[in-house]
Amino acid sequence: MLERLFQFAGGRRDLVNLLLLGALLLVVMPLVLDSFRLNLAGKYLSFAFVAVGLVLCWGYGGILSLGQGIFFGLGGYLMAMFLKLESSGAELPDFMVWNSLESLPAFWQPFHSFGFTLLAIFVVPTLLAWLIGAAMFKRRVGGVYFAIITQALAWILSILFIGQQGLTGGINGITNFSTLLGWDLYSESAKLTLYYVNAALLIGVLLASRFILDSRLGKLLVAVRDKEDRVRFSGFDVSNFKIFVFCVAALFSAIGGAMFTLQVGLISPSLMGIVPSIEMVVFAAVGGRYSVIGAVYGTLLVSYGKTFLSENFPELWLYFIGALFIAVVMVFPNGLAGLVDNLRQRLRPRGRALPVTAVAEEARA
């Protein structure tokens, strides 16, 4: 039984790391943080969904996407459409009235249904990722070119959402909603419940990531990252593996975006542009791009640092993000997870040293 549990979690060490993270998120943080800070932590954890997806996509798939804000924003907008229609009742949403729309656009109509909204959060961003991935990877577009293209797409989509004010709320996005199926989202009980739901979903995403990485598919992803031509000559269609992991990362991002909207109470184009997309890469890099659990710690650390600096030195936080990214690249390329592994190796008795932690399989947590 215990061995099966270890196998499901990816090994004894991964299970211990996951239990420690679960205890931190589900026990320690709710006990030591007040309601405001706990809601803030929930917001940070919604970004962690993106960072975990980037570990799969970038660390193990070798695909650096600088446009994950696209899928995070789409997930947030899809959830916000349902919440806005519920708060508006039989009336048109306020921003549509301000923009002289006389009836609800056809593509908004299905979002009266909560079930359809959940389905759309799963399907729409994943389908868009499949279209982008198929268009790029089938033509063997990768590396820095893929990163630049995804960054351009994030910029284009944010501009598109700003320009369509009557349909998307423009630069302000979709705001002014307060209930989910009649449940007051601003009540203390709702904030606490949403935090627990967010943390539980994140742990579920971590388990799903471990399942993928420990499967034959995960090993092929690493092989594609390290020796793409050799895998292709072995008869595999490399592009399909890349499309799959890119779609999984997009799905994780969309779930995070939906949870962000529920906890923060708004979604706007500023969350799907270039800057937030790069910040999401920094989260994964600081935590360790080979560690799905490290990505969660990296997100929490960088987000708290950003909040502290923006509260006390509002003009410095952008420099902090830039300096942190440079430090990660030049000083500790495997992030926090790599530092922890190095420390473990030093503390381990001689003769029992592990192979170099820079190897992805050893660096992952």
From TrEMBL:
Which coarse location class applies to the principal site listed for this UniProt protein? membrane
Residues passing through the membrane, by range: 15-33, 45-78, 111-132, 144-163, 193-213, 243-268, 280-304, 316-340
Q: Name its cellular compartments.
A: Cell inner membrane
Q: Return one GO MF term.
A: branched-chain amino acid transmembrane transporter activity
A Pfam entry, by short name? BPD_transp_2
Q: Keywords on this record?
A: Cell membrane, Membrane, Transmembrane, Transmembrane helix
State the membrane topology.
Multi-pass membrane protein
For whether the record's keyword set contains Ribosomal protein, the answer is: no
The record's Gene Ontology cellular component field reads: plasma membrane
- InterPro entries noted in UniProt: ABC_transp_permease (IPR001851), ABC_transptr_urea_perm_UrtC (IPR017778), LivM-like (IPR043428)
Q: Which domain of life is it from?
A: Bacteria
For this entry, the protein name equals Amino acid/amide ABC transporter membrane protein 2 (HAAT family)
User: What is the species of this protein?
Assistant: Thioalbus denitrificans
